Amino acid sequence: MSAKTQHNNILLAVLGFAAVVVIVAVIGFFTLGREPEVIQGEVEVSEYRVSSKLPGRVLELRVKEGDYVHVGDTLAILEVPEVDAQKKAAQATGDAAAALSDMADNGARKEQIQGAFQLMQQAMAAQEIAQKTYTRMQHLFDEGVISGQKRDEAFAAYKATEAQVKAAKSQYDLARSGAREEEKRAAAKQAQAARSAVDVVSSLLRETVQISQVEGEVSDVYPKVGELVGLGSPIMSISVMSDMWGTFNIREDQLNGLKVGSEFTAFTPAFNKDVRLKVFYIKDQGSYAVWKATKANGQYDLKTFEVKARPIQKFEGLRPGMSLIVKD
């Protein structure tokens, strides 16, 4: 075999190998394609925290973690002795204020009115006697029997009894008419203020019995029976299972035009099923969640966005913390 023939055979072998490599690469590119990017999210729900306006001791817990509660269910009972004492004091003050208001409205009792009338009658009788005495003294003075001083003393006594009659009549009229309108209004306002104080304490006492305001599942119970809880401290948390969504952190180059109202499909590994979701919230995560470019040739920094989407249809069994997978 000549050298030229051998050279041609080698060239053909190299070309054949190169052709095979190119064909394999083309086939691999079209058959395998690029590896899809995976976006992982998590199921979340609204959390309702039960807390009290009053500091107190946990007397009883009516539910435990995992229980499903409805609106109006009793969750816990607290003991607040100080407020009980305040309510008794407020009730006593209210009763006293109400009694004073009733007394002002009803006026004086019959016995008081009768006593004032008798005093007025006595004053009028004393005035009549003093008037007659003064008249006699005036006649005797005119006849020159007594001195002017005696006549003046009788006149002064007569005027004094006149003043006593006026004072007695004023007391009698006051007893008959009762308290003034201003005094009645003042007494009524004091009674109203006392009732309001009782209402405030009663409202606070209602806080000792914690009632559920939402329907959901008890996710956490923080204190134990017998422990003290502070003002506004959470007693338990309730997961509102009817308000559920998925949260995803997506780099902006992976959004692919995603916007509020968009729909997409996510895979749930827990059920090996797909769920259809609708976006209701998109917000950037701020500078702390920026993907930084490591090269200067055409790359740029990319922000990460928080995307929230709710299931379009009810998905039985879906729970907080479960994973949601989206393949780009």
Could you characterize the architecture of this molecule?
- By secondary structure, the protein is an alpha+beta fold.
- 44% of the residues lie in helices and 28% in strands.
- It has 5 helices and 13 strands.
- The strands form 2 sheets. Strands 1, 3, 6, 8, 9, 10, 11, 12 and 13 form a 9-stranded antiparallel beta sheet that branches.
- Helix 2 runs antiparallel to helix 5 and helix 3 runs antiparallel to helix 4.
- The longest helix has 33 residues.
- It starts with a helix and ends with a strand.
**Which percent range fits the helix content?**
40-55%
Helix/strand/pairing category: alpha+beta
Care to count the β-strands? 13
Average pLDDT, rounded to a whole number, is 77
